[in-house]
Design a protein that fits this description.
137 residues; alpha/beta; 4 helices; globular
């Protein structure tokens, strides 16, 4: 599937469309280069899901937890950019997060590829020449 995001004003529509396509998937890996808009899209998706917490990049904390929605739910937002070894990834307790039933949204998943659940939905985000984005999954 493909979702095009023409500009920042189009994020809400794209997040609604992605949410509908997400179905029962609980593990989502966002593959994209630096500055492509992974965190910006995840923020729009969390707003669409009704998360009450402010969505920020977990670059230094590695994991952020957001709560909200009807009924109350959790979303885990990971940024694996700074993960340098399998041991470091395991020390985070990834299995506990992945087995929690909460939605797990992951940036830089290639750094923990060996630990991703088999049912992970992989999303590629590319920037087009006109500055728009294309998400493919």
């Amino acid at each position: 599937m493909e979702i095009r995001i023409s500009d920042m004003d189009d994020l809400g529509r794209a997040a609604r469309e992605f949410r509908a396509a997400l179905g029962e998937n609980r593990h989502v890996a966002f593959h994209a280069g630096m500055g492509t808009g992974k965190t910006t899209f995840i923020s729009a998706l969390c707003r669409e899901l009704g998360m009450e917490d402010e969505v920020t990049s977990p670059t230094f904390s590695i994991i952020n937890e957001y709560r909200g929605g009807e009924p109350e739910q959790k979303v885990y937002h990971f940024d694996f950019y700074r993960i340098e070894s399998p041991e470091e990834a395991l020390d985070l307790g990834l299995d506990d997060y992945f087995d929690s039933g909460a939605l797990c949204l992951m940036e830089w998943p290639e750094n923990v590829e060996a630990f991703l659940p088999e049912d992970t939905l992989h999303v590629e985000i590319e920037t087009e020449e006109d500055g728009s984005r294309v998400m493919r999954f």
